[in-house]
């Protein structure tokens, strides 16, 4: 009986010792966890903004988004106009493979300066102008336009031949800003134009195509003969054109070099401003006609006899 109690005590004693050793660690863990939770609560309380601050920040973000999404418009103090230089007499048609030139004018009707920054041009799908077909270079100018003054900008681009015989939307935009830095965008030209193919008459490719078709229509023996004759005909036409152009150019006549000869004719001199006394004194006596020595002797002899 006693041995059983001893065995029971030996079993309970180690368990009680182990539990006693773990109790401080558990209490420490509970203390640490409670402290961490209190710190997190404090941090959350400190980081949580007030309702007024949240409303102000949301309004600021909304205003910034509205400013970013708001499209740029032209200034009421600026007037723009556009003039096509090439092609002349523009009527909503542009030639394919040719250079297009135009002028963009700007008038400042306000009291502040405007800075004309850039001009860009693009071809767009005529049914939807937000769809770009071809973009052209953006050229920077940075030209200052003072109040009540005007400025003109030049822009040019080359129409691709692959766009011929089709309509496209041509968009030309002028980007500028005022003295305070507010940006403006003016669509100077935003219309649908038609790209046409220029008919330049009979070119060399078409001529040789006709010659080749004519040669194919005859026998093979005369094919090379026709080709040779066609080449000779083209060569003669080119030489004749050059000869006619050389004859048409008139050589400028060699202009005589003008040499100042002074006043040779007395009628070209104006003596009205001189006094009459000066004119009488400076007038040279008339020279007698030349006489031969024989006539002089006769005259002298006549004079001497008369004196006697």
Automatic annotation (TrEMBL):
| Region annotation Disordered: where it falls in the sequence | 36-78, 280-308
Instruction: List, alphabetically, the Pfam families matched.
Output: TRAP_alpha (PF03896)
Q: Where is the signal peptide?
A: 1-28
Low complexity biased stretches: 46-60
Q: Which GO terms describe its cellular component?
A: endoplasmic reticulum membrane
- The UniProt entry lists the main location of this chain as endoplasmic reticulum
Q: Where are the transmembrane segments?
A: 223-240
Q: Which residues form a coiled coil?
A: none
Q: Where does this protein reside within or beyond the cell?
A: Endoplasmic reticulum membrane
What spans are recorded as compositionally biased (Acidic residues)? 36-45
Write the record's keywords in alphabetical order, separated by commas: Endoplasmic reticulum, Membrane, Receptor, Signal, Transmembrane, Transmembrane helix
- Topology with respect to the bilayer: Single-pass type I membrane protein
What is the top-level taxon of the source organism? Eukaryota
Task: List all Basic residues biased stretches.
Answer: 284-300
Q: What does this protein do?
A: TRAP proteins are part of a complex whose function is to bind calcium to the ER membrane and thereby regulate the retention of ER resident proteins. May be involved in the recycling of the translocation apparatus after completion of the translocation process or may function as a membrane-bound chaperone facilitating folding of translocated proteins.
- Sequence similarity: Belongs to the TRAP-alpha family.
Q: How does it assemble?
A: Heterotetramer of TRAP-alpha, TRAP-beta, TRAP-delta and TRAP-gamma. Interacts with palmitoylated calnexin (CALX), the interaction is required for efficient folding of glycosylated proteins.
UniProt name for this protein:
Translocon-associated protein subunit alpha
């Amino acid at each position: 009986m006693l041995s059983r109690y001893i065995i029971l005590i030996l079993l309970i004693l180690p368990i009680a010792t182990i539990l006693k050793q773990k109790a401080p660690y558990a209490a420490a863990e509970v203390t640490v966890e409670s402290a961490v939770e209190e710190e997190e609560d404090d941090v959350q309380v400190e980081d949580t903004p007030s309702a007024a601050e949240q409303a102000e920040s949301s309004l600021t973000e909304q205003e910034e988004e509205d400013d970013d999404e708001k499209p740029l418009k032209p200034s009421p103090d600026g007037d723009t106009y556009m003039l096509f230089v090439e092609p002349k007499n523009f009527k909503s048609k542009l030639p394919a493979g040719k250079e297009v030139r135009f002028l963009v004018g700007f008038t400042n009707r306000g009291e502040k300066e405007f800075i004309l920054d850039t001009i860009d041009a693009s071809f767009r799908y005529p049914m939807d102008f937000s769809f770009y077909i071809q973009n052209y270079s953006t050229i920077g100018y940075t030209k200052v336009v003072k109040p009540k003054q005007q400025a003109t900008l030049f822009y040019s681009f080359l129409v691709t031949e692959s766009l011929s015989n089709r309509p496209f939307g041509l968009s030309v935009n002028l980007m500028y800003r005022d003295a305070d830095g507010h940006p403006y965008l003016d669509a100077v030209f935003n219309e649908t134009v038609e790209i046409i193919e220029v008919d330049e008459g009979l070119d060399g490719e078409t001529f040789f195509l006709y010659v080749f078709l004519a040669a194919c229509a005859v026998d093979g023996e005369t094919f090379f003969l026709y080709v040779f004759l066609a080449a000779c005909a083209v060569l003669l036409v080119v030489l004749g054109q050059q000869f006619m152009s050389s004859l048409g150019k008139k050589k400028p006549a060699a202009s005589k070099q003008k040499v100042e000869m002074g006043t040779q004719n007395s009628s070209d001199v104006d003596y009205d401003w001189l006094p009459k006394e000066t004119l009488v004194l400076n007038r040279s006596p008339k020279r007698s006609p030349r006489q031969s020595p024989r006539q002089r002797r006769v005259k002298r002899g006549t004079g001497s006899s008369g004196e006697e």
